[in-house]
What we know:
The chain is an alpha/beta fold. The protein contains 11 helices and 9 strands.
Amino acid sequence: METDCDDVSVVREEGRATVTLDRPGKLNALTGEMFAALGDAFESFAEDPPDVVTVRGTGGNLSAGVDMSGVPGWAEERPLAVRDQLESVHESVRAIEELDAPVVAACEGHVLGGGLELALACDLRVAAADATFGLPESRMGLAMDVGGAQKLPGMVGEGLTKYLVMTGESIGAERAFRSGLVELLAAEGEFGSELAALESSLAEKPTYVHGLAKRQIHGVRPDVETGMSLAVHHAIAAYHEEETMDRVTGFLGEDGG
Length: 257
């Protein structure tokens, strides 16, 4: 299956699908076009759900987060225009969450910021021994806006959620596993085989059973949608802070854009 974005590829064969973020030179940093391609892919899956879908990245990383290069311009845009862009991202996230099939995040290397929030939209997370997880937005004065702040407390508790959000520090795969952030921690050198075993285990069950389970489990979660709508307003407010723009442009200068 081809996508309209060169940085996202989709392969579907033998009842399974793999969606790959393919921007290794930027550590698979996510752009609006990539989120749109993800949404399109999962909306197409909804018509005929695969047995299992795996989301992964190239170059040994899932994703280092959202591409920051467009953020300085957002401070100059009308808030409603920014809102529309963020809500489009949320639609893509919902397409992942609402698919009536199990979705696995293959967490290698950097799983940061929007990359972590993407992983949280998946049903299960498999971590390589070298994976690191974090939410560095606070270092640039940014508010989280892709659902992580709403979903993490129910997974890891308020304390660790606040630690990740407020400090911007990362945690390793072992702590992520112990805290409930990931469901399967692969031993060093065993990531591929552990991931394949999980995919096989999921694929051998009736897909409709997974879909029913997701609907029941999501039905008892806190009101994530309301929280994500509020996050849009918080994000817009942060974009209009002068210090935020100073921090973002400083980061982009260090990163080479």
